[in-house]
Structures are given as C-alpha cells and as structure tokens.
Design brief:
Elements (H helix, E strand, L loop, with lengths): L8 H5 L13 E2 L2 E2 L2 H4 L29 H11 L18 H13 L4 E5 L2 H12 L5 E6 L3 H13 L3 E6 L4 H13 L5 E5 L11 H11 L6 E5 L17 E5 L13 E5 L1 H14 L5 H12 L1 H19 L5 E5 L9 H9 L6 E6 L3 H10 L4 E2 L9 E3 L11 H6 L6 E5 L5 H13 L2
Parallel strand pairs: 4-5, 4-6, 6-7, 7-8, 12-13
Antiparallel strand pairs: 1-2, 3-9, 8-9, 10-11, 11-14, 13-14
Bound molecules: pyridoxal-5'-phosphate.
Pyridoxal-5'-phosphate (PLP) binds next to helix 5.
C-alpha cells in the first residue's frame, strides 16, 4: 500500500485533515479481491494503533483537533456545509474509528460507495425515513413489512401527517404501476420502501419492476427506492445491482451472526446517504464502538456462516417437506418453476437463505406443542445466528398486526418461523423429527 505523503503545515493551517491511510488495496495484479478476503483488513491500518492486528475499541466521547482550522473544516462536513461528511474524527455521536472501519467493510459486499451504521435495524429504518419525509407525503411500500416497521410507518409517521399506500410483495409491474400512480396523484412521494424477502412470509419483491415503474412515472426528483435486505443480505441478494438506491440491514441478524448484539446498517451512494448521515448526526442513532468492533469480527466469517447455514437449511427443508404433519414449507428453494416468485428469485437472488416458514397441519396448539418439544433449536425470535431458532409469528413478532391483515398475509396460527444455524444438519433433522412426533 502506498503511503500518503505527510501533510504540510500550510495545508494543516488551511484545515486540511491529516491523511488517514486506512485502505487496503482492493485488487492485486489486476485481480479484484473478494469481500471475504477484504473483511480481514480493509479499512484499518495497524500502524495507526501501535501495530495492533485488530482495531482497538475506541472508547472516547470526543476527538482532539490538530488545529482550530481543522476543527472548523470537520464541522463543515458534519453540518452538511461541505458535502461528503466529516473528513476527520469529531465527536462520537457523529463518527468513530470502529464505526468507520465497519462501514468501509459493510459497503464492500454490495460494491456500495458509502455505508452508515446504527444502534439497531429499527433505528436505521427510522433515521432513513425521518430524513426523507414531510407532512402530507405518501410512502409507497411493499407488504408485509416487519411489524415494527409497519407500526413506524402506519402509526408513528401517520401521527405526523404522513400517509402510506402498499402493494403485495409479489405484485406485478401493472399492480405496482397502479399503486404508484395513485400515490403520485395524492402529492409528494419521497420514497418507495421495500422489504424482500418479507418477514415472516418470505415473499419476494420484484426490485427491477419497482425501479422501472418509478422511472416511468416520475420525472425530475424521483422517489428513492429503499429496501430492507435483512433476510438474504449481503450474501444472497444485492439490491443495489437491481436499481435500489439504499439498502437497509438489521445487522443483528446474519451480519452479526452470533445473536449477541443489536445493530443496523444502510448502504448506498454518498449522495443517497448524505441526508441520512445528517439526520443520524442530529438524533444520535449511530452504533456504539463495542458492537461495531464485534461486527468487524463477525464479518470475517460472514461468508462461511451464511454458506453453511444455507446448506443446512436446504437439507432440513428437503426433509421437512415430506413429513405427514407438515402442510407446507415456505422456503425460497422450493418456489414453483414458472411462477412469478421463481422468476423474481432467479433474477435477484443467488441463494435461498436459511430462514423459512413451516406451516404445520393444525393450529396454535399443534404449533406450540412442536415449539415446546424442540431440544436443539431454541424457542426465540430473531434469525441469522449460528444457532437454530424457532418462533411463532402470529403470537410473537406479529402479535400486534390486526387479524384481517394477518389473514391476508397468511400469518396463520399454524405458522412456525425457523432460522437454521450452522449446527450439524442431521442433528437438526433429529430434533425436528422428535418435535413433530410430540404434536
Ligand atoms: N427488518 C427485519 C426484516 C427484521 O426481521 C428486523 C428484526 O427482526 C428488523 C428489521 C429490526 O431490526 P432490529 O431488531 O435490529 O432493530
């Protein structure tokens, strides 16, 4: 890596930041390095931290400026007077080394120009929405959404005079066109918010159809396409490549991957993330240094963990599908050839993931007996961890969703949601076999 020449006194007194040579080369001899290689060192220069192989956790609330002019210049970035964000470290509500290294690495997976990290997936979503909406706007969104996101859009933003219109996750181009046209007729549409696959049904949204519909209908300032990619990202689906502007993550799930932290992220272009960075600076939804450090460790094994969990899920779902007490397995690997969902999957996804819906024959009683009998799989909400988790959406994560909406979205009492981990797949099958026998 070429060292940046030291800054001159003249540059420093003009407020130029000291160079921070933190980036590992992205290619060697013309060969572009893969994300899993870059997760080991990208964004961190050990020479800046006493030669430490791993970054320290930077526990400080504020940073010392090298000159008053540098401080002023950094604040111009923080407040948006100078585009591109702060050029140096200022105050831990705005930025910090652990978060910046994590953001550099997170962006790699989708080839994103910029990334931001947040204290939770929900604080990422809330910060993105707050940065874009104003009273009288209409948010167009796919349905279903994670229950807290539905509450945020429907109830909390609703109180501020923001309306919403939705289309079902699997909607055709014509159906998407019709909803967008209706929204446009009602006034400003600042963003189109997608979740794909949807929680908990796993229904996929046609991102390409959404962006094509947006481009055909809107001229000038177009609605920003935002997508929650928590269930398949960043390994199995990369929505920026299909036209999305901002991709949101609950990093609590696959990215964190060990069920030991809560965090969120957003990736996109610098221009798309600029207003969100300003909002994050204002309301203080940035991730703390310690979970940021933990996420750096997690990203080193992201591909290993997700690949193994995906292979396990394929094996477990193949077995579950043939069991007499199972009504249906809602797994992306089983989409009906020739169906619209299979078409979206082929265009957008490179893997079926490891989170799926298991519809048992019966209702709540059967689902509860199955859940209570599990010995390896833990009865807990969340997903994407090294361990297998199982939960009951109708009675847990989606309890607050009105019954008619649950019925419309097939969130029935016989639905169990399962997130497969990295255990031995045959051990998991043995566990599900004895739990099915206990129904
Ligand atoms: N988006 C999806 C699809 C989720 O499943 C979740 C949580 O389960 C969230 C967002 C919220 O993430 P967090 O719990 O990190 O705030």
């Amino acid at each position: 890596m070429a060292k940046t020449p030291p800054i001159t006194e003249a540059e420093l007194s003009a407020g130029q930041p000291r160079p921070r040579p933190r980036h590992q080369a992205l290619e060697i001899g013309g060969r572009a390095l893969s994300p899993s290689t870059l997760m080991m060192g990208h964004g961190f220069d050990p020479a800046l931290s006493e030669g430490s192989l791993k970054p320290p956790v930077f526990l400080t609330s504020t940073y010392v400026f090298e000159s008053a002019a540098a401080g002023k210049r950094f604040f111009e970035g923080v407040t948006g007077k100078r585009p591109g964000g702060a050029e140096g470290l200022v105050y831990s509500r705005f930025n910090g080394p652990n978060q910046e290294i994590l953001e550099d690495r997170l962006g790699i997976w989708e080839g994103a120009e910029d990334a931001l990290t947040f204290s939770s997936g929900m604080s990422a979503i809330a910060t993105v929405l707050l940065a874009m909406v104003q009273p009288g706007d209409t948010i167009v969104h796919s349905a279903p959404l994670y229950a807290a996101t539905e509450t945020l859009i429907g109830k909390i933003l609703g109180k501020l005079g923001i309306k919403w219109l939705d289309f079902p996750a699997g909607a055709t181009r014509e159906e998407i066109d019709a909803v967008m046209a209706k929204a446009k007729a009602g006034g400003r549409v600042p963003l189109i918010y997608l979740e794909s696959p949807a929680n908990p049904t796993n229904a996929l949204v046609d991102i390409e159809a959404v962006t094509a519909a947006r481009d055909a209908l809107f001229e000038g300032e177009k609605p920003v396409v935002v997508i929650d990619n928590t269930f398949l990202g960043p390994l199995w689906q990369q929505p920026l490549k299909h036209g999305a502007d901002i991709v949101i993550y609950s990093l609590t799930k696959y990215a964190g991957g060990h069920s030991d932290l809560v965090a969120g992220g957003a990736v996109g272009s610098k221009a798309a993330l600029a207003p969100i960075r300003l909002m994050r600076n204002t309301i203080g939804t940035i991730l703390d240094p310690h979970p940021a450090w933990m996420l750096l460790r997690s990203l080193e094994t992201l591909e290993l963990r997700m690949s193994r969990a995906g292979e396990n899920a394929a094996k477990v779902c193949g077995w579950l599908r043939d069991q007499p007490k199972v009504e249906h397995v809602g797994y992306l690997g089983f989409l009906e050839e020739g169906s619209r969902q299979a078409d979206i999957y082929k265009r957008h996804c490179s893997g079926a993931g490891s989170t799926f819906s298991l519809y048992l024959k019966g209702g709540e009683a059967e689902a509860f007996r199955f859940l209570d009998a599990l010995k390896i799989a833990k009865l807990a909400v969340s997903l994407g961890g090294t361990e297998t988790l199982a939960s009951h959406p109708a009675g847990m994560t989606h309890l607050s969703v009105p019954q008619e909406r649950k019925d419309a979205l097939a969130i029935g009492d016989n639905l169990v949601r399962i997130s497969i981990g990295v255990e031995n797949a045959d051990d998991l099958i043995a566990d599900f076999e004895q739990a099915l026998a206990a129904i």
